[in-house]
Amino acid sequence: xxxxxxxxxxxxxxxxxxxxxxxxxxxxxxxxxxxxxxxxxxxxxxxxxxxxxxxxxxxxxxxxxxxxxxxxxxxxxxxxxxxxxxxxxxxxxxxxxxxxxxxxxxxxxxxxxxxxxxxxxxxxxxxxxxxxxxxxxxxxxxxxxxxxxxxxxxxxxxxxxxxxxxxxxxxxxxxxxxxxxxxxxxxxxxxxxxxxxxxxxxxxxxxxxxxxxxxxxxxxxxxxxxxxxxxxxxxxxxxxxxxxxxxxxxxxxxxxxxxxxxxxxxxxxxxxxxxxxxxxxxxxxxxxxxxxxxxxxxxxxxxxxxxxxxxxxxxxxxxxxxxxxxxxxxxxxxxxxxxxxxxxxxxxxxxxxxxxxxxxxxxxxxxxxxxxxxxxxxxxxxxxxxxxxxxxx
Length: 393
Known about the structure:
InterPro entries: F-box-like_dom_sf, F-box_dom, Tubby-like_C, Tubby_C, Tubby_C_CS. One of its GO terms (biological process) is regulation of DNA-templated transcription. It comes from Gossypium barbadense. The protein is of the alpha+beta class. The protein has 13 helices and 14 strands. The protein has a domain at about 125-205 and about 230-270 and about 300-385: Alpha-Beta Barrel (Tubby Protein, Chain A). The strands form 2 sheets. Strands 1-2-3-4-5-6-7-8-9-12-13-14 form a 12-stranded antiparallel β-barrel. Helix 1 (about 5-15) packs across helix 6 (about 80-85), helix 5 (about 60-75) crosses helix 7 (about 90-100) and helix 6 crosses helix 7.
């Protein structure tokens, strides 16, 4: 059987979802069969084993070769969905697919939902764009250059919804566009602002086990009280602050990001950033998070906006976005690492743009990120630029 026909048959077999799952799949969702399903007594599980039996019994060497060919051929979405389809066949297919598919840091591709929490590529930035819907206060993150160039082939990555409260604003982040419940498996985190919109905290529902997580005693107390609640606990993984501009001096916004979940040594020679490999169980993660929510000796990575230059002819502040930003806006920014001299970080590494965000249309913004940031972290930082900041401009 030709490889193309083989993959098509696997894809058709993996698309037997419910109507809701089909709807989300058309909007960019990626669904994978659960890792651990009860195989002992249910009739449904035995039916599934019978249905996938002819594929599950393939020799491991042949199966490895098939998945390697599929993975090497599909380098972008929607074709990348064939790789996800291979992981949806059965447990043996899923295990080998996980071994074949590399992290975004190694290959520069986003494949499974967990890729959104893994660091981006070291070599080239991963290019995305954000579509804003003012009427619903919704922000959608897509993979690709822009809606005009990607057309209907856009891959939906994350969706955020702004919730206005009396003393703050929350940006709830989900994997899908119609489920922002904190008790849902689609919930991945949120961005919370202060009353003035100058300080933000990034919360993650499931930080990696080796990440550096900090929290105040108050947050720790709240986490402990919420153990009995079905809602997922919250962990502060980063803090964003914008400098006040009380004198109304000319110039762009100045921002600083303290990435508690990323050590400063990650950008140094031989440094590594925390890379989660799977979404963990909510209750297990709650117990783990309660133990790891404490100050550590490691210094967190600090990001600052790159200082623009004043253009005399245009009479405006300018940054080189290399064609990815076309509209002047106070929201535009580039973030670079702010390393101390004692950290022995090379100058080229400090000048490398880790995250850039800018406007290209009325409600369209580009977002390009790279190692050591993940798509979730980059999206949360970009969302902070949308909030109103009258005291910073």
